[in-house]
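Why does residue order matter? Because the sequence determines the fold. Keep that principle in mind as you read this record.
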Amino acid sequence: MAHDHSPAAAGNRTRLTIAIGIVACVLIVEAIGAWLTGSLALLADAGHMFSDLAGLLIALAATVVAARPATDRQTYGYQRAEVFGALINGLILVAVAVGVVIGAVSRLISADQAEVSGTPMLIVAVIGLVANVGALLLLRPAAAHSINMRGAYLEVLGDTLGSVAVIIAAGVILTTGFQQADSIASLLIAAMILPRAWSLLRDVVRVFSESVPKDTDVAEIRKHILETAGVVAVHDVHVWAITSGAHVFSAHVVVDPVVLQSGGTGALLDELSDCLSHHFDVDHSTFQLEPAGRTGHDSHAHD
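Structure:
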């Protein structure tokens, strides 16, 4: 049973469009601020925001593609485009983090420390923080339901934490004159980026490998099916996801021959499908009904 996700998709596109505008403006401000102040932390945050802008644009394109209807060649539609978008976002995050680490370490081991202007650095970082918090609040409601939107949300969350790190570094420079605080803040930004990238890429691999969604309990599904009147056994149970929130299920269900003889298969299939849809949010469910006592089950059946 398929769910209509088109209203949610339209809402996601609106959120992403607004977030893109916010991030683009902050990116320009931070890039100019990094050039004027000589701050590597601001430059790192600007680089992170550039990756976020690219990621948000990719996420927006993915929501547009994912909304296209199914065809005879793409029978599930284009929903997996969101997963490809999340994959690209994760790889961009890794590249930015590595670049920031290289730049920060080079500056820390350099004999000549670059002079950083603390006051304009602080002002730019505060502007970035306010804008990032706004974008974060905008994307948060959709992040729980879409891996693509989760990727966008995590990127903006990283920007928000990055702005906090820059503000702290600017405060240290202004109060103590410790210029290396700028490079240390850059390393902290990189340290915040990598775990988020790992989490996102791990979820992408889970979808591509057709693993059971992490919020799905196969044993619980099997229990619900076995409790349905007329069901004797269930095997060859498979659960996977096309994208986040779009789960697919298939199973061989052994039923009492009386159900088959009395013409009750339609009602049984409706009951099983409703159970999967309402209790486990499964969009597509397929059941192969088999009479009890049938021999020759597949050798790879799941008990």
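The CA atoms of residues 55 and 68 lie 20 Å apart.
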